[in-house]
TrEMBL record:
Residues 261-326 are annotated as: Disordered. Its cofactor is Ca(2+); Mn(2+). InterPro entries: Ferritin-like, Ferritin-like_SF, Mn_catalase, Mn_catalase_dom. This is Mn-containing catalase. The keyword Metal-binding applies. One of its GO terms (molecular function) is metal ion binding. Mn(2+) binds at residues 35, 67, 70, 161, 194. Ca(2+) binds at residues 58, 62, 228.
Length: 326
């Protein structure tokens, strides 16, 4: 269950209304890299972890819940930045103060006018945040990625936290309000904290690369295709040893010839790697068995019950005490 505490996690403050910035900040409320996306992503990912990875479930739900708290902070900030808009919109008769403000400001600064004329801020939910991005596009579940595989989901979360961090970095220069800057600094910093938490969680799963079970084919895992002519850039992405599988990069400088001579890559002999197709197949089978056994052993097939209640009100020992299980 969720229990709402009316105090914010961080004391959001605003010096003065700024509808222009409220509109930009909507990006972090209902946008593709916003707080709702983060909350929903970790929330949805948590379900598949509940039994096999109780410690990951605990972390995902903790961070999802914190992200909901951040959504609340962003919403509260937008509400304050819109200041008198809601009240002014109630004066539907005439001579609305907001009209005077719009006319006066629009003449001076078109950008501010744009913010005021965000239809969501005026006619859908006057003076209040809506679940849209800064251009009014409705929030979408397509922003959320969850694949029921922690070696994939946790990597997805590293990308999500990186994007959320850079969004705050882009937003900060657009406000002069020191209070709003402080709030954004807090929110940005938490993304960096979450990044490292997800990174450590990924690192605690061994092996975790390649993501999933299949170890992938050594015929193709270390090939670099030079798909353009001249000014060939060389670097650790196409020379030396690969980052995870530690294979020597094979630089294919004539891709078309290589494809033709290998009968469309069907006749490739692995080079620069200790991995063989036989080894890979054995590892696939071993890992598949191990993971299946591990997950099924922790997943009851009948008489299922998500929670175990104790008469004294404390949750039965489960995920919280199981921190180090794998
Ligand atoms: Fe985050």
């Amino acid at each position: 269950m969720f229990y709402h505490v009316k105090d914010l996690q961080y004391n959001a403050r605003v010096s003065a209304p700024d509808p222009r910035f409220a509109r930009l900040l909507l990006e972090q409320f209902g946008g593709s890299n916003g707080e709702l996306k983060a909350a929903m992503q970790y929330f949805v990912q948590a379900f598949s972890c509940r039994n096999p990875f109780p410690e990951k479930y605990d972390m995902l739900m903790d961070i999802a819940t914190e992200e909901l708290g951040h959504l609340e902070i962003v919403g509260a900030t937008i509400q304050m930045l819109l200041g008198p808009v809601n009240g002014e919109m109630k004066d539907v008769v005439e001579n609305m103060e907001i009209n005077k403000m719009m006319n006066g400001r629009a003449a001076k600064e078109d950008f501010i006018h744009q913010a005021y004329t965000n239809p969501h801020f005026l006619v859908l939910a006057p003076g209040s945040p809506a679940l849209t991005d800064s251009n009014g596009n409705p929030w979408s579940a397509t922003y959320v990625t969850a694949n029921a595989e922690p070696t994939v989901d946790l990597r997805s979360n590293l990308a999500a936290e990186s994007r959320a961090k850079i969004m705050y970095e882009y937003l900060i220069p657009f406000t002069d309000d020191p209070y709003v800057k402080e709030t954004l600094d807090f929110l940005m910093t938490r993304e960096v904290a979450h990044y490292q938490q997800f990174e450590a969680a990924l690192d605690s799963i061994k092996p975790n690369f390649p993501p999933g079970i299949f170890q992938t084919n050594p015929k193709y895992s270390n090939l670099y295709f030079d798909m353009s002519k001249e000014e060939e850039a060389r670097g650790p992405w196409n020379e030396g040893s690969s980052t995870q599988l530690k294979e020597e990069w094979q630089y294919i400088d004539k891709p078309q010839e290589y494809v033709t001579s290998t009968d469309g890559l069907t006749n490739v002999t692995p080079k620069g790697t200790d991995r063989t197709e036989k080894m890979v197949k054995e590892k696939d089978e071993k890992l598949a068995k191990e993971r299946k056994k591990m997950i099924l052993s922790k997943t009851p097939a009948k008489d299922m019950q998500w929670s175990h209640y104790q008469p004294d009100g404390n949750m039965k020992k489960n995920s919280k005490t199981n921190k180090h299980s794998n």
